[in-house]
Amino acid sequence: MALGTTAQTPLAIGIPPQVIELLAQRAAEIVQERQPPEAAPEWLNTRDAAKHLACPPGRIHDLVQLGKLAPRRDGRRLVFRRQELDAYLESG
Known about the structure:
Elements: H1 17-34, E1 43-45, H2 46-53, H3 57-65, E2 72-74, E3 77-81, H4 82-91
Antiparallel strand pairs: 1-3, 2-3
Helix pairs in contact: 2-3
C-alpha cells in the first residue's frame, strides 16, 4: 500500500433476524399507506346508497317514492349514482 492511502474495509453489522423482520413489516406498512386510495364505485345499490347517506335503506326507498332520488334499474334492483346522492345532500 502506498503512503497516504488507506485500505477500505467493508463495514459489517450483525442485525438480529427479529429486527430485520420488524423493519420489513414497517417498510410494508409505509408502502401501503402511500398507495393511492381505490376509486369509489360510481353506482351504488340501495344498501350502499344508505351507507353513503348515513341512513337506513328504508329511507332511500322513501326518498325514491317522494321523487327526491331518481334511481336506475338493473332488473328489479335499484342503483344510484354517487354524484346524484351527493347532490341531494347538498340541496337540502
